[in-house]
Task: structure prediction
Amino acid sequence: MSAALVSTIVTTLVLAYAAWTALAAGRRAQSRRQLLAGLLPAVAFVLLIRLIGAFGGWTDAALWVWLAALVACVWAAFRAASVWPDLPWSAADPKVARGEVPRLVVGAAFAAAIAGALVLPGLFLG
Amino acid sequence: MTMTSATDTDTRRTPRRRAIAVTAAALTAIVAVLLTPLPRGFQGDVTGDEALMEATAAALGSGHWQHVAVAKVDGDTVTTAGTGADATTEFEIGSLTKTFTAALFADAIDRGEVTEGTRLGEIWPQLDGKAAEVTLSSLAMQRSGLPRVEPAPSVGDAVASVLASYLHRDPYRGSVDDLIRTLGDTDVSDTTPEYSNFGFAVLGQSLAKVSGMSYRELVKQRITQPLGMSRTYVPASATGLSHGYTASGLPAAPWTLGASAPAGAIRSTADDMAIWLRATMEGTAPGAVAALPRADFDEADRIGFAWMTTTGRTPAITWHNGGTGGYSSFLGFTADAGTGIVVLADSAISVDGAIDLISTASGSAAPQPTGTAPAGSPSAGSPSTESAEVGAASARSVPGTVFPPTAPRSARIEGDRS
Result:
């Protein structure tokens, strides 16, 4: 199996996971924290592919997966904004609520790290 | 307190809430479009010959392009063109550097400094075992048994190299001593043809050792100075050159490659590379015989010293390609027709398509230069570049880029692009 094929498969899987995570977030969230904690990994994985993906000649099949993942994120944003006013900040079940903040922090840290890797090196290059 | 699920709320949307949701979706869509490196033409004003630039853009195809410079040689006529760059703009040439290293090898043979059969153990007495038995000609013809890129001496170095690649920095580091120490610890496999940036790094440093000069000085004294290539040099540091771009349009730091410089560190211009191309085509360049094919490389290509010759095209073409984290290049000529082409771009997207400017595929199965495929698609794990591509010939296919941790380009120096 060629390295290019492996790359395409990995890219496709990561993007598919990001899209699924984004779509699932709005459907399953019992609180705003859960909603955000569900969306952040999706954002992080999309940014990760943006960081390391080649996007060279716009001929690879993975490009269509990329575009599909972005469409899923757009739909997820629509859905999240729709349900946001009806959700409490934290889940009613104390056990569930306890796990919300750590998930949120980890997701935010992951997304921030990838976003930083995307932006900061370029800033130092001028 | 009653638990409210997202699904329950769907039926209770008000027009205002819907408007907010549509706005959120629209903003996300805008960010998504901005985030996507959409295909576009080269950026900036066209310089030089417009017809050549138009043909070049058509041959290179779609991509998130930045700037490009091209020179076409047709007999005694040299035509140059560019977009956002001109014939005097400096670029990293990546694995095209290997054509210089190969010429230095042929020239050193002429001078009697080495022979094709000189073994590494004769130059580096500290080596023993299989590494000491590797000959210079096997390095020059990419059949030494050395791996594609220099193995990392430690886990820390390996992690640093991978991180550098993904953060679009120069993944190559280390001194000549480090290079030779690593060589001594490297398993030498069988001698089937395999593109190796490591091999060319060792070849160039071996020639430097024999001559008593640094590789940088060797290139200057034996090639660029005699040919009047005043803007071609091996950089001592990363300064002096603006950054290039990954295939996805992210800034990529300049590469100097440390001791691996002979595999892909040279910077040059289209004007200077046209001088190199003509002198090699005409046989007047020092070590020009390096371009002559000497052995089979694969089913589609023959190889000289670094130079690949693809016979499945009309006319047959002798070529090499290159790439670093932020640059791509292609250099080729047709010995029969007396035409040649050099393309330099500050993007890691492959410019191998330039081969069509001077040669036509003989059939559907006709080979394109392979090597690395730096940019191209969002491929996880392949920072186009990245990485240590100092690849050349299809390092994405064969020779390649110096893109280390990434997918190798063909004949590039990938770092795997070199």
